[in-house]
UniProtKB/TrEMBL annotation:
Claim: Nucleotide-binding is one of the keywords in the record: no
A GO CC term assigned to this protein in UniProt: extracellular region
Lineage, opening ranks: Eukaryota, Metazoa, Chordata, Craniata, Vertebrata
Protein known as: Sodefrin-like factor
Cell compartment(s), UniProt: Secreted
SUPFAM superfamilies: Snake toxin-like
Signal listed as a keyword: yes
UniProt KW keywords: Secreted, Signal
Length: 198
């Protein structure tokens, strides 16, 4: 409360009408709290969300809050899902447009794990120059109605950058807007096509 008052007083003194958002980033947990930051004049929204990066049984959660980059506004309120038999990836983010609106808990909708009648090729390689080829398929769940093929450099939170080749089920938002929300993918190619009916 004292920190909030100090930030508000600073904004009044400087005469700024810039948005004030909470800023934090925390891996290994579903929540974070931090400082309140005066955003750039072109910023109109705050954001908060959670990334779930799972490989096998190793789950890494990363909670985040910040001023929203205006170029990422299309990703507000969207759910980003990718999964195959080895890895799964989910980003959930919400945006709001008033001072301090992204404080409080990061809330994530429950994931629908029910099979939806679609399937995709299933493949995972790391640190391999071989292309991702497979005859195995994975059943899609929830909103995953696209097949995605990822090839490129990426890292898990806190990990080294590796060369990955992945195929699996994805949501349409993952295919359309991944470039706006990815934080651990670097040089890559992402190709998507409609999932096949079982």
């Amino acid at each position: 409360a004292i920190l909030t008052a100090v930030v508000m007083l600073q904004a009044l003194i400087t005469g700024a009408d810039c948005l004030l958002c909470e800023q934090c980033l925390s891996s290994g947990t579903g929540q974070c709290s931090g400082i309140f930051k005066q955003c750039s004049p072109n910023v109109t929204h705050c954001v908060k969300g959670l990334e779930n990066n799972t490989e096998g049984t190793d789950v890494i959660l990363t909670a985040f809050k910040d001023c929203l980059d205006p170029s990422q506004k299309a990703a507000c309120g969207r759910e980003f899902f990718f999964k195959n038999s080895v890895v799964s990836f989910q980003i959930s983010r919400t945006c709001c447009d008033s001072d301090f609106c992204n404080r409080g808990d990061v809330e994530v909708p429950a994931v629908d794990e029910n099979p939806n009648g679609y399937k995709c090729e299933d493949c995972f390689t790391a640190q391999s120059t071989d292309p991702c080829t497979t005859a195995v398929e994975v059943q899609c769940t929830g909103e995953q109605n696209m097949c995605a093929s990822f090839s490129g450099a990426g890292s898990r939170p806190g990990g080294a950058v590796l060369k990955y080749n992945l195929k699996g089920c994805a949501s349409r938002d993952f295919c359309d807007l991944f470039y706006q929300v990815e934080t651990h993918a670097f040089t890559y190619e992402l190709l998507c096509s409609p999932a096949k009916k079982l």
